[in-house]
Amino acid sequence: MEPRQTGFDAVAQALIDPLRRYLARRTDAATADDVLSETLLVAWRRRDDMPAEPLAWAYAVARNCLANAERSRRRQDRLLVRIWQLARPPEHVPARDDPDPGLAMALARLSSADAELVRLWAWEELAPAEIAQVVGMSANAVSIRLHRARRKLKSLLDEQAEGERP
Amino acid sequence: MTDDDLRDRMRRADPAASLRPLPDEEVRRLVAGAALDAPAAPRFSSRRLPVLVGAAAAVAVVAGVLVLSGGDSEQAPRPDVALPTSAQPGLENGSGLPDTSGGRPATSAPPSPGTSTSQVPTTTATSSEGRKTTVAVLTEGPADPNVRCRQPEAAVLAEAQMAFEATVLKVEGDVVTLRVHRAWTGEADVVEVRNATGSPVLLGFEPEIGRRYLVAAKDLKVMGCGYSGLDEPALRAVYDEAFPQR
């Protein structure tokens, strides 16, 4: 018979693709690869803390690892970052291959925390309680903020649509 | 615009939509790498390691669930051979086990008739999520150089209480740490092999970091004579035959 997978392997293998998608949505490919490895390492070390439904927990680990990677990169390239910030255009400029530049611009006008709630809801398809686990807020607070963030995003998109009408 | 409209629009712009799933082999490699100290570990290291040895090597299974029957009391490890693995310098980080429970005996395994539990330090601890952490210490009898091994037979291998594929993570002093990927029987996340004798062979098992092995254990002893070795199709076929689908 085929050998069956042992505990951590089976769980971690099922998490890899959701984690890759989570990271691909938030960083460049090279950083995503590094952070994925780091996330798995942390998950392995903390596997006794892993809940029975590990996805939101794994996203939270990835989120922390990504934040650490970005902090580390900022520390290393402090000068470059400063220059980049000075040179940064005030308006969000979507990437050329962005399939929906209007949406990207509208998301950029939300606070980064609110935009992240909307992403976790739409892309990771998490319920408020799961989002709460990822971002470290109460489920109630997430529900309220997510509701407001979606309303604001829709209103920004409506404004864009109005502006585009002849 | 409804919430559903908004979600649909966001999904159409999902930057990960074109991401293809990783091949299974790459997924397995990533997960195996997770247990290495360096997350982006190479698949194979060119570093050749000292070959471990036969007599009285001990295998400690430090995580997962492992059910073993007791062993021959003559072959059971002395208490000082039993490995409370988290106490081994360098192992606790590699295994990622918490100091509070990792590898420390909590309860004894059920003994088979005629076996003294004090000589069979198979231990179990249960994590908060209901997964069990088991530590078992296995020994192997002295290898007799005059005994010529026959080809491994499925009927003999079928008597193993533990049979798994594992990758060597590291070798530190006389302890080899293997990461278990899959098990035909028994269950574990990490296996530690200690060479208690200083002799250079572990039943023909040459631990090389990053390489994958098939390892079987019976009655608290690693099965040698070709039953444990490099993960190769011929040996794997014997494992598959020994443990048919139940």
UniProtKB/TrEMBL annotation, chain B:
TM spans (from-to): 49-68
Residue ranges with Low complexity bias: 114-128
UniProt name for this protein: Uncharacterized protein
Superkingdom per UniProt: Bacteria
Claim: Membrane is one of the keywords in the record: yes
Keyword entries, A-Z: Membrane, Transmembrane, Transmembrane helix
Stretch list, region Disordered: 1-23, 71-133
Basic and acidic residues bias (residue ranges): 1-14
Organism, as annotated: Lentzea cavernae
